[in-house]
Specification:
The structure is a homodimer. Chain A is mostly helical and about 80 residues long. Chain A has helices at about 15-30, 40-50, 50-65; strands spanning about 70, 75-80. In chain A, α1 packs across α3. Chain A binds a DNA duplex (21 and 21 nucleotides) through α3.
DNA sequence: ATAGATTTGTTCGTATGTATA
DNA sequence: GTATACATACGAACAAATCTA
């Protein structure tokens, strides 16, 4: 999945997996350095035109992979 | 929506839309004149028994309609 | 002058209901 | 029937701006 790819609602791959791969690619590309805060859930919802739950499902994948860390009230950060 | 109406959690209309209409009616009735500060979010939460997010969603509708204006640290005001 | 309270702004956490593929 | 996706709603915490004692 390319970092600049857009969400394809008709694709066989679930939307939340697509978003997870897009974000993973953006992090690998260096859009956000380790320790930096990425887009908020609300911003991701707006940017990619998805529901919040779907966005969170994508984030969950990267959190489980220890690529991201979330901090309540602060945001979501690239793991260091 | 009447200015004295109460929130109906079982109605088809979302709660935040109900509150927006109640507040719109109260403003039209003259509960607060243009330029005056309305209830704070915390007071609205208490008065109508809603979550803050729901209250803010109602306010957002009236802000987008240019009926209300918010000022950080000061409050929410009727547009002039 | 500053410490605390108030108020809006932002953010993640959780749960439920509905619709669709 | 299950997984996916969206919308709504409540909860909790942190932050910044403003006002007051």
């Amino acid at each position: 999945m390319d970092a600049d790819a857009e969400i394809d609602h008709d694709a066989a791959t679930p939307v939340y997996q697509q978003l997870a791969e897009i974000l993973r690619a953006r992090i690998e590309r260096g859009d956000w350095a380790p320790g930096r805060r990425i887009l908020s859930e609300a911003q991701l919802v707006q940017t990619y035109g998805l529901a919040r739950e779907t966005t969170r499902k994508a984030l969950r994948i990267l959190i489980d992979a220890e690529i991201l860390v979330t901090v309540p009230g602060r945001g979501t950060f690239v793991a260091e």
